[in-house]
Design goal:
By secondary structure, the protein is mainly beta. About 5% of the residues lie in helices and about 45% in strands. The longest helix is centred in the first third of the chain and has 7 residues.
Length: about 100
């Protein structure tokens, strides 16, 4: 089962997030609000973050999780930053199944 199928079936149990991408001017562009899940990339054993739009279920983000990347939680908020991607958590998860 792929990440998009999981998102469609379990959207109530997924974390709601806001996705921003750093533009060429060094400013954060709003990419949209959606649901995030972690799943394997298609035909790969590598994990990735998938974010699907909360309105139309279109893919907002597919980001390969790399151990060499620096992921950090922003102080005092529920946010994650990695390279040029910023994800702000909007709701709390009661449970998450992969």
């Amino acid at each position: 089962m792929g990440a998009q199928e999981k998102s469609q079936g379990n959207s109530n149990s997924l974390q709601r997030v806001k996705v921003y991408r750093l533009n060429e001017d060094g400013k954060w562009d709003d990419q949209g609000t959606g649901h995030v899940s972690v799943d394997y990339l298609e035909r790969s054993e590598e994990l990735a973050l998938y974010v699907f739009d909360q309105e139309d279920n279109e893919t907002l983000l597919v980001h390969r999780i790399c151990p060499d990347d620096i992921y950090r939680k922003q102080e005092g908020t529920r946010s994650v930053m990695c390279n040029e991607i910023y994800i702000s958590v909007l709701s709390t998860v009661k449970h998450f199944t992969q």
